[in-house]
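Worked example 2:
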Amino acid sequence: MIVGGFDIATTTGCAILNGSKPLHVEAFRALGGTDDGKVYTTFRHWFRDVLKRFEVERIAIEEALRTPRVNATKLKEGIVELSPAASMDVYLRLYGLRAIAIQAAHGLNVRVIEVNQATWRKSFTGNGHATKEESLALAQRIVPGLTSKDAAEAIGIAWHLNGVLREESLRVAQPTLF
């Protein structure tokens, strides 16, 4: 089965695998700069093209950033302050790209799962808190010479999806006793 793994962001990591064999690995940066309309349009064209060109059957995308959390230390001092991992513009763009990916996959009849970063990292590296550098080092064993951390993470996401699909096939293939 041909699967895709995507680390969706301003620079999106993409890995298309046929089993454990990489068919296509890249880091794609949508054109458009600060113009969200151009970024979304460029991303949509690229994303659909990749799914169609490689006849991808299933994809996994890393869950987008979660919403900002309240800074607990400051709250104890009576100050309500958010501790965002990124600005609101970044959240809006990431969730916009996520929506485009899900809609494009749906339109091509490609099933999508979203996977938590710690989950795929545990599946790929054995450590749910592995760094981008550790993911890259492992991905380089699959694609020698790979330099993009975004593409490396996409390989990890696709690798995780292959594991999920293997588990599903084993569950389905088990004969019933009655």
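The first strand starts at residue 2 and ends at 7. Helices lie at 36-53, 72-76, 88-107, 117-125, 132-142, 149-173.
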